[in-house]
Structure formats: C-alpha cells, structure tokens
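thought: fold this chain, then report.
action: predict
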Amino acid sequence: MRIAIIGSGIAGSLLAKNLDGVAGVTVDLYERAAPGEHDGAGTGLNLGPNGFKALRLHDPETHARLRAASWEWRTWVVELVDGTKLLDLDLLDLADEPGARLRWSELYALMREPVLARTRYGHEFTALEEDSAQRLVPVFKTPSGETIRNGGYDLLVAGDGRFSKLRELTCGPIQSQQMGIGIWRLLTSDAGSPFDDYRQWFCGNNRLLAYRVPGGHVYACGVSALNGDSIEAHHKTEEFRRANFLPKDKPPCPSVAWILDRAAAQENDLHWARLQVSPLLRGDSLGRVLLLGDAAQAMVPTLGQGATQAIEDGAIAASIIRKGGGVKEIAAARDTRVEFVRDFSLEATDTMLGADPVAGTLAKSGPEFLAKLKKLYRDVPGP
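observation:
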C-alpha cells in the first residue's frame, strides 16, 4: 500500500511516524513549508487529557516526549472579570491524567522531529491527476517553480488543516459556518503574571482566557461578538477590547487588568481569527482519500479539542491501517466519537453565544455536564 500524506501537522506527522516500518506500507510525507519555517510561529494551546490517553495507548514514546515538553493542564477556573469565581474544576476528578499547556511551535517541532528526515519540504500541493490504475497522483510545486509528480498512491491523507486543498479537490468546497464571533490571540512574557494554570473570565458573553506556557510566556485569548461575520478595523482597537472586557461598575480583577494591558502594549502582535466550524467528512466515496484533524472536523476550540482530536485521529488511524484497515474502518472507529466531541464543544460554547454566562457556567459543575467531560476525557479506544 502506497500512502501520501499532505501536510506534516499533528495528525499527519503522527500517522507517518506510526506507520514507519510496517510491512507492505510505504509512506511519503509532503509539507508546503520549508524546514524550520514554523519554528517560532503560533501562540499557545491546551491539549485535553484524552489526547494523552490516545498517545499512552497507541504511541507511548510520543506520550513521554510530549509530557516532558509541556506543563500540566490540571485546573479549569472560571470567574467574572471582577474576580467573582463561578467554576473551579480539577481535571483529575474527571480524567485519567492531566492535559497540557505549551506553544504551538513546540508541539509542531515535537511531532515533526521523528519524521524530519523523511519529510519532503517545500512541496506545495496544487492539483490532482490519475494514473492508468485509477490511483490518485498529487501534483506539487516547489519554491523554484518545478512541478513534481511522484506517481500514483493507493491512499492520499489530508493533514493540511481546516482549509484543506485535498478535501476541496476531492470532496468539493468546504462549507464553513461562521459563528459571528471574533478571536484575538497573544503570546506574551509571563513577567508579573498573576495566574498560572487555565483560567477564564466573563464580561457578559465576552470571554478572556489565559495560562502560562513553558519558555517564560503567557498565552492570552479574547472572544467577543462581531455583530456580523467580518473582523473590522474598530474590532482591533484598545477601546473595543476595554469596552468588551471591563466591568461597568467596579474595577477589574488583577488578572484581567494585566491581560488587557499586555494586549494594548502588543497590539500589533495580536493574531485574529473568526469562530467557525465545518462539517465532518472522513474521506471520498471511493476510499482513496482520508481526512484527518482539522481537514476532517474543524470545530470550536472551547474545550481544547482541535489539536487533541488531531492526536486521536493520527494515533488511531495508524493503529487501524497497521491491521489492514482503510478509510471505512477509520470512519467507523472515529466519526461517532468526533460528532460527540463537536456537539459537546459547541454546547460548551453557549456562554459565548448568548446564554447567561453565570447560569451557563454554574451548570458546568452539574452532573450532566461533568458526565460528558468524563466521557470526553476517558472514552478513548486502545489498539
């Protein structure tokens, strides 16, 4: 079986690593970026405990390396912007082990390191053809303008993210759904940080999030309504941020004041995006294309499941292919699980989509929500 993986992100790199040396399987991994191009890119992320369980069951070596390179995500604290506490969860009451906090660039480097020598960098995927056996032939362009074809593959794997070119060419345009919410993200120095682990603060339906990550940094994120689907110039101003995240009749707590001051001082460093989702799709109708991670299931980031589900995808897909399975078997193993995660993540976003932030947050300490968190964190199948 000849496999080409388009994109050396989380799922693609994990799949390539865990198929290395499998009898009868050859894997080519293609990446648009140059080696080291993303070494300093990105902000921070939190990985759910279920991602670590998937690695512990399917790839203990990566589990150990990732745990050593990250800090534990142990608590989930939610407050109002004046410091009134609404929620304080210990993840070890719900999961088999903690989650993690680290920078995106560190996660990418860790995932890519085992397959670095086998990755074909500087290959931008541009088109598809077929060979005489009706196998798909990906076409690539290099920075020098050279066109590359390396023959037909039995399986093409999309690991190229939520705007996947492979998904678009084989399964049609991606129909993303905008949620009318803008997100800004910042990686800043942790000097003077009044917090450590994962915390959130609400001002109405607007939410701040922050936590420390290795390397002397804090990751901070602000979420607020756009009153439309576009991010306009006025959304990026300090005036807009302070109007959305400062309490009206009392001073902010020290953490909120610290985050807003840092955002003001580093306004040009803010990364902007819109909250959106796209429909789950695992592959094409002929079983020649497998979609993994955000290429298959872009979801809201509320529960930290975007990168976490990419880990589950890569580890579990490799386990199934090693046993002779294909797209159909991977879909059977993954899609019901992913639909639950997507639906639950959207449910947990209620306090940013118009629900009462106090009542909605308090409900997250109730038995129904906690039972779903336990299912999220623990229901990961083994090999």
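thought: worth noting. Residues 104 and 285 are 33 Å apart (CA to CA).
final: tokens above.
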